[in-house]
Amino acid sequence: MVKVLVSVRFLLVSFYICVQNELKGEVGSPGLKGEKGEPGGGYYDPRYGGSHGAPGVPGMLVFPQLHLIALNSPQTGSMRGIRGADFLCFTQAQAIGMKGTFRAFLSARLQDLHSVVRRADRDHLPILNLKDEVLFDNWDAIFNDGRMKDNVPIYSFDGKNVLSDGTWPEKMMWHGSTSTGQQHVDGFCETWRVGDRALNGMASALQSGSLLQQSSSSCSSSYAVLCIENSLGHSKR
């Protein structure tokens, strides 16, 4: 009886070992060794030193300012209205890369010259020429018997000195205003639409240094027309 039990136990153990071997399967062949990877991209940790780069270029400070610039050629009193004059100022400013908005330095039937610049900008922003030289300390100074700074010329958009260049044989400029910047009655060539010899517009001699001298001139005359920047462009090309 004992021999029978031992034989049965031996058979069971042998069967168990065979089953385990079947489940394991064959041992696979070793895999190929992978290639060595590239070094990882690190980052600079200031705790471990390292040199600093060169300092950057400092930013340019831009101060608010307004420019007063002449059209590139003289005009008669016929400028297709005040909007036509404004358009000439706008297009010539754009042509040289000026970013601000420019309007004609003129009074008209529905416009006082003094009001062309915003009230908030009238008493503190300097008025500069094309080359950023100060002509007047501020807009209000022009209407308070102000005179241009000595030896500071007015330039046209294409860089000509209006006082010395032959493009302007007569050193006069249109403004159509009273001395305080209001529209002058019948002094603006029918709102700058007429170049008739029989009509008159208000003008000023540039040599006087005053932009609002009261000189009544024939609307057929060809005079300088100035343009004032009335929005801040910080904007030289």
From TrEMBL:
Residues 66-232 form the Collagenase NC10/endostatin domain. InterPro entries: C-type_lectin-like/link_sf (IPR016186), Collagenase_NC10/endostatin (IPR010515), CTDL_fold (IPR016187). Keywords: Signal. Residues 1-21 form the signal peptide. It holds the Pfam family Endostatin. SUPFAM superfamilies: C-type lectin-like. This is Collagenase NC10/endostatin domain-containing protein. It comes from Seriola dumerili (Greater amberjack).
